[in-house]
Amino acid sequence: MDIKNMKNYLYWLFCQFELITCSYLMEPWEKVLFYTFNITMLFMVLYTAYIYVPIHISTAFQFCLHLFGNQHENTVSIVK
Question: Any idea where this protein resides (predicted)?
Answer without folding.
Answer: Endoplasmic reticulum membrane
